[in-house]
């Protein structure tokens, strides 16, 4: 079972690396918004992976709160976004 957790962790690190690259090099503000959402999703997945590995379920409310804040922030930014030049 440890192998599954290690493989999942490596995949999450790779996803975070590519999302960070898109956040830095994104030609558009919407590209940066999508990469930020991806980074938040990866961090939520990392917290959930750690909770599954350790058997600690006390972080479940934090996962839900982070997902809700991420959704509301993404909708607000997409709604009031200024057009790129």
TrEMBL record:
Topology versus the membrane: Multi-pass membrane protein
GO MF terms held by the record: sodium:proton antiporter activity
Subcellular location: Cell membrane
Transmembrane is among the record's keywords: yes
UniProt cross-references to InterPro entries, sorted A to Z: MrpF/PhaF-like
This protein's UniProt keywords: Cell membrane, Membrane, Transmembrane, Transmembrane helix, Transport
Main location per the UniProt record: membrane
GO cellular component: plasma membrane
Keyword Flavoprotein listed: no
Residue ranges of coiled coil: none
Transmembrane segments: 6-24, 36-53, 59-80
Family according to the record: Belongs to the CPA3 antiporters (TC 2.A.63) subunit F family.
PANTHER family membership: NA(+)/H(+) ANTIPORTER SUBUNIT F1, NA(+)_H(+) ANTIPORTER SUBUNIT F
Protein name: Putative multisubunit sodium/proton antiporter
Organism: Rhodococcus rhodnii LMG 5362
């Amino acid at each position: 079972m440890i192998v599954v957790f290690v493989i999942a962790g490596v995949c999450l690190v790779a996803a975070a690396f590519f999302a960070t690259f898109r956040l830095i090099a994104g030609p558009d503000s919407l590209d940066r918004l999508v990469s930020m959402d991806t980074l938040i999703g990866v961090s939520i997945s990392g917290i959930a992976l750690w909770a599954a590995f350790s058997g600690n379920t006390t972080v479940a409310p934090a996962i839900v709160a982070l997902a809700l804040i991420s959704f509301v922030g993404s909708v607000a930014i997409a709604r009031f976004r200024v057009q790129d030049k």
